[in-house]
Amino acid sequence: MLQIIDGKAISAQIKDEVKKQVEKCKADGRSVCLAVVQVGDDPASSIYVRNKKKACEYTGIESVSCQLPGDAAQEELLQLVDRLNRDPEVNGILVQFPLPPQIDEDAVIRAISPEKDVDGFHPENVGKLCVGEEGLISCTPAGVMEMLKRSGISVEGKECVVVGRSNHVGKPMGLLLLQENGTVTFAHSRTKDLREITKKADILVAAMGKPRFITSEYVKEGAVVIDIGIHRSPDNKLCGDVDFEDVKDKAAAITPVPGGVGLMTVAMLMSNCVKAAMKQEV
Ligand code: NAP
């Protein structure tokens, strides 16, 4: 029978666990604080920022909003990040992407102190993930690992195919699956005969940014299919990189969109904030 991996339930579970950890921190006289930086007023970014602040409210994490105008210079943002890096009351810094074209996102990622890098994008945290050291891990792939674990899906010895190799999603996803002893293949836009590769996957992760691209023809019978993609159609409906209706009869387990990986990203951000705060206390 098809298992629908319920991102809503699992993310709620994680947020409740974080809430307890934050209560414990408060009982010990410490608070947890996330600074959320937005540049400009892109509507999609504003929704993401609002959801992150709502999750902070729920878990008891304090959130500080820092808003810069859309035409802010890179230097202005870097100075703000520097101030937040040095503020002992701030445990985590999140700069909402995408940034306006005059700002180099990579420079911003590198400017955030690795200890406060709750997005897990800083090369130091990526490096730690690569060598198996504890650090802050990119929220979306970390969320996928929690979904697998909490759904009783073991990665060990499985053929895992990640479609997508971006620094923030695909690459850390593959590294995490490797860490759990999966046999990992990365596929990307230059991959020859993608279908032949994805059809070998016991665990198939779609992170390619192409709406409903992965149909049943790309999926092995009985595979676990994880859909990281998120797209909004002109009629305001959400869908993923996987054609859910077409794939659901072939897969053994699948994440829906909405109600899947997207909700996990915010939950893992909250989890990273507490992790960062606890580490900073030591
Ligand atoms: P990205 O930076 O655009 O990367 C897309 C990756 O997919 C690239 O590695 C690209 O290959 C590969 N790709 C594109 N077309 C392909 C094709 N036809 N066949 C095989 N590979 C192909 O995107 P991203 O930031 O990783 O995000 C991926 C998706 O996840 C997007 O839909 C995004 O909205 C979503 N996302 C969701 C969450 C969430 O919370 N659920 C969080 C982050 C991202 P090349 O490297 O060769 O160009």
List keywords for this structure.
single chain; 282 residues; alpha/beta; Rossmann fold; 2 domains; six-stranded parallel β-sheet; three-stranded parallel β-sheet; 10 helices; 16% strand; binds NADP nicotinamide-adenine-dinucleotide phosphate
Brief account:
By secondary structure, the protein is α/β, with parallel strands linked by helices. The chain has helices spanning 7-27, 43-59, 74-86, 105-111, 123-131, 139-150, 170-179, 194-198, 244-247, 261-281; strands at residues 3-4, 33-39, 62-68, 92-95, 159-163, 183-187, 203-206, 224-227, 231-232, 238-239, 253-254.
Can you give a write-up of this model?
This protein has 282 residues and is α/β, with parallel strands linked by helices. It folds into two domains: 85 residues, Rossmann fold, CATH 3.40.50.10860; 124 residues, Rossmann fold (3-Layer(aba) Sandwich), CATH 3.40.50.720. It has ten helices and eleven strands. The chain has a six-stranded parallel β-sheet with strand order 1-11-8-7-5-6. Helix 6 packs parallel to helix 7 and helix 6 packs across helix 10. The termini are far apart. The mean pLDDT is 97. The site of NADP nicotinamide-adenine-dinucleotide phosphate has 24 residues, from helix 10. The site of NADP nicotinamide-adenine-dinucleotide phosphate (NAP) has 24 residues, from helix 10.
